[in-house]
Write a structure and sequence with these properties.
Strand content: 15-25%
Helix content: 40-55%
Radius of gyration: 18 Å
CATH superfamily of the largest domain: Response regulator
Shape: globular
Largest sheet: 5 strands, parallel
CATH class of the largest domain: Alpha Beta
Structural class: alpha/beta
Amino acid sequence: MSEPKAKKILVVDDESDVTELVAYHLKAKGFQVETVNDPNSSIGLARSFLPDLVILDVMMPDLNGIQICRMLRADPKLKRVPVVFLTAKAEEADRIAGLETGADDYLSKPFSTKELVLRIQSILRRVADGASHSERRMQVGQIVLDVDRHEVAVNGTPLDLTATEFKLLHLLMERRGRVQTREHLLINVWNYETEIETRTVDTHVRRLREKLGGEADWIETIRGVGYRMAERKPEACST
């Protein structure tokens, strides 16, 4: 039996000592790694390398990480690739801005290489879990989620969801009618064992609702607790 193919990681940071440090630890864990210190070259390298995950610095000259993340999300070949921001910008507003751009996680400098590796492994495991389920098709209202194909459509129109958004929607649909606390979602969607940033959940739910458009009302906010996929659409619940 052939050994599983090494996952590919692209590291983008204008500081060579950072890319060298990250690459060293990732290679030690069996990852295939490419690094780039010129942000202007990052998209071209990403298109040729086709990474399984991208690590992005935010504060870089000419082209910052937020801009690069938007470009990745707009590229048909790269739009589903998970992105982890690695940056010195540690304020909550910066974290929210990064997540709203489409990033899957956010780690502040100075960082623990052990924590970075664990978060990467967690994200890749989450993506693999989403792809390994037996064929299943779920529908709520006009939202159709195909687990096997890893596709979501609303009124027949395909949606571009990140891996995290897909996992979040899948969990809510799978547990339809049951309230999911923010802490529960952090553990089951982001694989965090303790509460890290409950605002992370709110940011992703808001972005998911925007993409669902007219079907967004299916996701109910349970004030002070979390979220639930409604059993009936709100406007159909009147007596």
